[in-house]
Amino acid sequence: MTEISLISSPPPQRRRLLPSLLRNKAGLAGIVIVALIVVNALGAEHLAPLDPLRRNLSLKLLPPAWLDGGNPRYLLGTDSQGRDLLSRIIFGARTSLSVGLAAVALSSLIGLALGLLAGMAGGRVDLLIMRVIDAMLAIPTMLFMLVVALVAGSGLLPLVVVIAATNWVGCARIVRADVLGIKEMDYVAAARASGASPLGLILRHILPNILSSFVVVSTLNVGTVILAESSLSFLGFGIQPPEISWGQMLSEGRQYLATSWWVATFPGVAITLTVLGVILLGDWLRDHLDPRLA
Q: Which of 114, 188, 262, 265 has its CA 20 to 30 A from that of 124?
C-alpha cells in the first residue's frame, strides 16, 4: 500500500529568471525603474547634490537649469523656500519606499493570515471575515484612511499602520479564493485522510501553491501604498516636516502651478514613474511565477 504521506502538491512550473525577464521588455523597464529608485533611496546622502533642508530665500522658486534664469547648481530648480528640488526628490524616495514596503509587509501578513483562516475554517469564521471585508469595501478607502489617520495621528509609524489597516482586504480575498480551490484538490484530500494536521496542510500543501499569487499581489500593492502615502501627505495627514515626502512636496507646490510649475511637477513625475515601475515589475512577476497567465 502506497503511503499517503508521500503524496504532496505538484511542484510549480519553473522558468529561468533572466531569460524570462529579457523576453519581457516591460518587465525589464519596470525592474530598471525600481532599481534606480531603490539606489536613490539607499544612497540619498551620497547622491543628493545639496542639503535638502537648507533654505535660501534669495534663491526661492528658481527655475530648472535649462530654463532662462536657471542655475546649473540647482538642476531641477528650487521650491518656495529656496531648497534644492532634486535633493528633496532623492530623499523623498527613501520615505516613499520605507512607508510602501513596511505597510505592504504588514498588510500582506494580515491579509495572508485572515485569508488562510477564512478559507481553511469555513462556516461562521469565513462568513464573519467576509462580512468585515464587505463592510470595508463599502467605505471609500481614502475616507476610511483619513478617519483612521485622525485617530492615529501623523508620523511615519502611524502612517504605516493607517495604510496597512486599509490595504489588507484585497490580499485576504485572493488568498481565501486560492485556498478554497486548493483545499478541494485530490492531494490535499489524501493528506487530510492520512491524518495531516491543519497546520501541516497549510505549510506543506496550501502555502507553496498560493505563494506566486501572494507575491504578485503584494508587489502590485506597493504602488497602491505609495499613492496612498502621497495622497495622505498631500492632504496634510501623512509625513510632516522636516521629514520629506513626494506627496508633501506636491502639496507645497500646488499654489505655484501657474507661475512655478516645476515645484509640483517633478515630485509628481517621481510618484508616477515609481508606481509605473512597480506595476510593470508586478506584471512580469505574475507572468513568470504563473506561466499559464503568460
A: 188
Nearest to 24 by CA among 273, 286, 212, 217: 286
Instruction: Decide if pLDDT at 58 tops 80.
Output: yes
163 and 225 in contact (C-beta within 8 Å)?
Answer: yes
At 219, the amino acid letter reads T
CB neighbour list of residue 72: distance below 8 Å, 6 or more residues apart: 65
Q: What digits encode the pLDDT tens for the residues 72-106?
A: 999 999 999 999 999 999 999 998 888 888 999 99
pLDDT for residue 291: 52
- 109: Cβ contacts below 8 Å, ≥ 6 apart: none
- C-alpha neighbours within 13 Å on the C-beta side of residue 97: 23
H helix runs in the chain, sequence order:
17-23, 25-42, 44-47, 85-121, 123-138, 141-152, 156-166, 169-182, 186-193, 198-201, 207-234, 246-253, 262-289
Q: Report pLDDT digits (tens) over 241-286.
A: 888 889 889 888 888 988 899 999 999 999 999 999 988 888 888 7
From 103, 99, 130, 98, select the one nearest 114 (Cα to Cα).
130
For the cut 60, the answer to whether the pLDDT of residue 10 exceeds it is no
Q: And the C-alpha cell for 28?
A: 525589464
Distance CA 289, CA 25 (A): 17
What does the alpha-carbon distance between residue 121 and residue 43 come to, in Å, rounded to a whole number? 46
Nearest to 183 by CA among 121, 114, 254, 259: 121
61, 78 in Cβ contact below 8 A?
yes
CA distances from 233 to 40, 103, 250, 254 (A): 20, 15, 9, 13
